Fold each of these.
Amino acid sequence: MEKIKLAVERARTAFNTGKTRPLEFRIQQLLALKKMIKEKEKEIAAALMADLHKNELNAFSYEIMGALGEIALMVDKLPEWAAPQYVEKSIMTMTDETYIHREPLGVVLVIGAWNYPFILIIQPLIGAIAAGNAVVLKPSEVSEHTAKLFEEILPQYLDKELFPVINGGIPETTELLKQRFDHILYTGNSTVGKIIMEAAAKNLTPVTLELGGKSPCYIDKNCDVDMACRRITWGKFMNCGQTCIAPDYILCDPSIQNQIVETVKKTLKEFYGEDMKKSPDYERIVNKRHFKRLMGLLEGQKIAYGGETDESTCFIAPTILTDVSRESKVMQEEIFGPILPIVTVKGLDDAIQFINQREKPLALYVFADNKKIIKRMIAETSSGGVTANDVLMHFTLPCFPFGGVGRVFLSPGFTDTIDGTSRVIQAVLTGLRGLVAKSHFCKEFCHFFLII
């Protein structure tokens, strides 16, 4: 464990030399990271296949492409973002120069997640580098092949002292949390999030937590149900349902429940074929522990479609549940797997009440042709982001902050949003459906202070 302490100390010593402060150095490191991604694309895709059965196309579309796009954006915009921000003067400072200056926080700890093990480490790393920080990276040990690859290739391209990679499980993470950092970012579950908050409190370290949640889809009975089901099917079952903003469950009128089931079934066969176990496009559950957790959620449920499983390969077929009780176990926790419950509601009022009786979701999806319905859902609920007539798309805006509200997302930053929340209203969007990183990570890892 001594090597962990030494790695953090070396990162702080390197940061204190001031080498990260010049924009030229930051841009050089970002371009080196871009070079790494391009030169090691095959190895990255192979690691993702080994960890999650993610094929090369999905690896590029949902993880690699987003990182390259984020780097390009940072390199292009960094001189503008790093420049002094001049602010309005008061009557007492009319003759003074007043502006906001940005400086790096120092040494940042990034603890990644296993479901998108590449992009969820690279994404905050890009922002932290752009902001001028040293970064200690802790990939998730659950996606062990991707974690090992990070440890192997990152030192070949980035400054070894400033950007160390620490691999391991609970003991290594525990030791890391004993060290003093200037900011900690963690993506994962709330149990670990609480442990990180407790450890950070000892040093009053700012923390950003992205903890997920149950993201509902409300389908109005008068909308284009076929279109809604097609888009929900894509967003729900990509990465085998292991996406933090994946549609978690559907709320709908009882009169369209059967239509939804049949349309989702038809779409699944179109996407993955008749035998989904043989599909090269359908991922697997990350390990047997999560497989067994999901099997527990299926107990006592009415399976309208799917339900096939193979524990030896962590395969769970896309599964639709109907007539789901509001009090059932599957409705009490984030599913994070290929299980889609349908809960019937009496109408919009009932749907809004149902959503508001639970923890605030990380994402909320509403499908309706009537704009008044969409506006009511936005006005009368609270969530991390809203996408109308599509799913996941609010995450594809690189210049907009991504986050949640309340227990699903905690951050001292993003001060240009309300209560740490970004709510995006989008019309039907077409085109590329890739996940793009958030440029606001650059702001998250900066200290803003006023100079007169």
Amino acid sequence: MNKIKMLAAAVVLSFCTSTTAFAQGNTLDIDSLISNNIDSTYKVKNADISIQQAQNSYNKAIKNTGSAGETSDDMTNDERYNIMITIANAPEEAKFSIYKYTNQKEVTKNEVKLSAYTEYNNVMNSKDALDLQQDKLNNAEEQYNSAKLKLNLGIITEADVKQTEVSYYDAKAQFNKAQRGYELEIMKLNKIFDIDVYVKYDVLLKDKFTESPYIRSYDDYVNDALKNRAEILNAQEYVNLKNFEFKIIKSVYPSKYDVMYGIGQYNVEQAKDALDMDNLTIPVEINGLYNNLQVKCKALDSKKDALALAQTNYNIALAKYKAGVMSKIDFDSQEISVKTAQNDLKSLQRDIWIAQLKLNLACDIGSDTSKITN
């Protein structure tokens, strides 16, 4: 019996240990996180519902064509028009809705993707800030402990120790603040994919940054956007739908002076105006994104220069430290300066990566569902 109990306890202990190891070994691969979870997000599911509803409307419209009847000479124009609308136009409207919502789903997926990558870069920046604050805390703790030792030796006063103590607790407060900030960014990322917000990660597998960005010409970006954007595609298809409706109207109300003829013509013109407006507003949007990317890229050189200067000062400090003419505490301060400059450069490179992603998505089908109106 005792052997059985011991075996059971060993199994339980083994299970608990392996479970803990698994929990502690969570790796965050942002690309896999997106590809594996994007279709189950709330926004994408809603887009699927809209597509299915449009498909149901199409099926219903096709079914209704069989019971709509046929036109005859003794019918009024209004009666013939209603039958033709049911038979011909209702399915076309439903087909347009399927097309529109299918495009909107792709925009929604890009919207989620952009949101996830943006938040992931916030996570990476927060992690760098946390690591930096850890180094600063370690340095402050070393200075505090050194000061207490010097006090015991009678080298410095209690006031000097108090000053290093204040610096230590300030560094500790800054570290705790950075830790909370990092944990908050992780929660925000988890929330995008409806993951438990308290799930934590020990390894951030990939970094998303651009060292030497390649920027095409402004015209190339605009041309792509005007071919690919959902607003353009939907607006073009909407013009086709209104032209189809107008043909039905003209077949029943051929006179240009008829009210229905005027309504049909007006609807076509309105659809064309909406398309023209999209052709005007999209280049303006691309211009803003293009300029934003260029501004960020121009700031790269200054960040690289700052890092080079910090690295030079670090190398000088390293030589002094090895020669015994610089304390480890002062040397560690130079190391922190290098890491600060590295973080500043890496943060900008991540911003550039996101700026490029925004521009590329804006030149594809899009990444902002609020811009889809039809």
Amino acid sequence: MNQPAALDLIDESARFFSEPAGDPLVALEKAHLTQLTLCDMLEQIADSIPGQINREVCSRLAAGLLPLIRDIHQFEEEILYPQALDRLGTAPEIESTIRRLRYEHCEDECFAEELADALYELGTGKAPRNPEAIGYMLRGFFEAMRRHIAFEHEHLVRLLRQTATDGQQGLVTG
């Protein structure tokens, strides 16, 4: 996906997750697509440091990163996880899985706040004080996010889909 289209997806997703509607599992798939697109963009920025930084992309991501992450996490914690617990409450380890995902959300939000500051600095056009540290920070964030999504998919989405194929309806209507 090219950068303008990726930025548009991230902007549109930010509006969507401020008031998600419909089946939470479908919304989660949209969240994962948005987050993976964000990861790809952050990886491109990390690869471009120090010499070929796209200041506009950095500025837009600096402004939208934390609100997007918070909105997605709020959707998961207030809508998806409670419905998943109602649906999967007897599944082995579902409570510990959701507890782990919530903990990772706290860490991701703290990291996103620091990363937004670094992206803002890159967006100003000033030479980064420590380009290696910013590259390391970017990589740490997007790698953690990719792992979180993979874990969520493997341990939560799989169970939710399995219950849907066992004759139950979607999360919202079940």
Amino acid sequence: MAVLFTIPGEPGAKGRPRFTRYGHAYTDKKTVEFENLVRVAFTQHVPGHQPYEGPCRVHIDAYFSIPKSASKKRKKLMIDKQVRPTKKPDCDNIEKAILDALNHIAYDDDKQIVETSVCKYYSDVPRTIVMIEEV
């Protein structure tokens, strides 16, 4: 059975670990907030979900806001998915933030993920759509 849910707002990404002056590593606030948003969105869309135990496939569609500076012609191309975002965050960092956030919630561990795909698009409504299914 596939699970499909939406994370509202601009797509987030896994930030690089930060270090204190004493060498202690920590996750930056922006990453922690996005991962919490992912967990909340998942539990609201799929209440009572038991974590998958077998191999899983994940597909992520990240929809970014259309820049205000875009012309009408360019906006139409963006909405029609003919112009795609090549800006940050990178696909792999979007994927990593979502997969890490869903550990022990959607699946036991992200090592179970055997297949992934991430697509970036523009939209009037920024959001991230995630589909998870057992293989």
